[in-house]
Write a structure and sequence with these properties.
The chain is an all-alpha fold and about 350 residues long. It has one domain. Helices cover about 75% and strands about 0% of the residues. The protein is built from 17 helices and 2 strands. Strands 1-2 form a two-stranded antiparallel sheet. Helix 8 runs antiparallel to helix 16, helix 11 runs parallel beside helix 16 and helix 14 runs parallel beside helix 16. The longest helix is centred in the C-terminal third of the chain and has 25 residues.
């Protein structure tokens, strides 16, 4: 956990320096190549930590999964024996086993995808460094590749490289590693759309129907995630969900502040994203109904931070940008401390040990 704190501290300091360098937009873009090199080095650090780790989130389960898949003679057989795991992730493990690789080789690939996704986020997304700093607080993101980490990283890679016409394909690829990647892309595409009242009502009705159907079709997976959550923390599910509500409430408050500091350049404003708010409220309600959906709320948390970070980037007053990120960075370390106390098993990990 010390390495996570140290890496986050380095990232936060770099973000502050990058924001200071944005005092004049022309100067910042003139030195953009310097920041590209700095973020490349940081991404290499992330890759090194992730690729050489031993232990961490679901370590034993992923070891067992790879061993099971390695005995499969075909992808169809591997998928039929692991039908609760997304096909893309099964295919990755099956391919590595087929060419004679080991579980460590899978970790190398996962780490490369994660590090590359973070690099593109840092260099191509407005406010990407703020997003990356916040990601260090999420238990499924950061320096320990698991399926959801890889799915989100793939979403970042595809979201920053493909055209808008290929976003649906991007969603399918990311979802093949973890189903939670769907709302990240779909909401990011649709959240800024302006809809009439009847259209919003239609979205709500459709979403309720879709969630109900998903709950039936994925009952076994949902129960599995619920069991995992209970094993990871002794806190009640309601306490964890309340923490998510407070977190998203804080991000929404910062979002509101961005529109106060910059009345004309900040888009979208908090009231422009009704679809995002509807989906987030539904995710919270789903998590209250079944704690397994708590992972889904983390994805919506990323969407909120993604939008807020972009708004902060476009604020012209540099002091306002520094102030807003100071608020965010304070919460980042509070969240890290809280997470390290709540989820001891996830952070029972040794970096640079392989």
């Amino acid at each position: 956990m010390v390495e996570v704190y140290a890496t986050t501290l380095v990232l936060v300091v770099l973000v502050f320096l990058e924001l200071l360098s944005q005092g004049r937009r022309e100067t910042y873009f003139a030195t953009n190549s310097i920041w590209t090199f700095i973020w490349f080095l940081f991404s290499v650090l992330i890759f090194s930590m992730a690729a050489t780790r031993v232990g961490g989130s679901d370590w034993a389960n992923y070891e067992s999964l790879f061993n099971t898949i390695s005995y499969s003679k075909s992808f169809d057989e591997a998928f039929s024996e692991n039908r609760l795991i997304e096909p893309g992730y099964v295919a990755l493990n099956h391919f590595v086993a087929w060419i004679g690789g080991s579980r460590r080789d899978v970790i190398y690939i996962e780490s490369a995808i994660t590090a590359f996704g973070i690099f593109l986020l840092l260099t191509r997304v407005p406010g990407g460094s703020i997003i990356a700093a916040w990601l260090s607080t999420l238990i499924f993101i950061g320096v320990m590749p698991v399926r959801q980490t890889v799915a989100i990283a793939l979403a970042m890679i595809l979201f920053t490289t493909v055209s808008s016409k290929k976003k649906f394909f991007a969603a399918l690829v990311a979802t093949s590693f973890h189903i939670s990647a769907v709302p990240l892309l779909v909401t990011a595409i649709l959240s800024g759309k302006r809809l009439r009242k009847y259209a919003i009502l239609g979205v709500v009705i459709f979403s309720v129907a879709a969630v109900s159907l998903m709950a039936v079709l994925l009952q076994e997976k949902i129960e599995l995630y619920g069991d995992d959550l209970n094993q990871l923390t002794e806190l009640s599910a309601s306490t964890v969900i309340f923490g998510k509500i407070v977190t998203i409430g804080f991000i929404s408050w910062v979002w509101y502040l961005t529109s106060k500091f910059e009345k004309y350049n900040v888009r979208p404003r908090i009231l422009d994203c009704k679809i995002l708010h509807i989906f987030t409220i539904m995710a919270m309600a789903m998590a209250i109904y079944n704690p397994a959906f708590i992972r889904l709320t983390s994805v919506f948390e990323i969407v909120y931070v993604w939008i807020v970070a972009g708004n902060i980037f476009y604020i012209k007053n540099n002091k306002c940008r520094i102030f807003l990120f100071a608020l965010i960075s304070a919460v980042i370390f509070v969240k890290l401390a809280k997470i390290s106390l709540q989820f001891n098993e996830i952070y029972d990990v040794c970096f640079f040990c392989a």
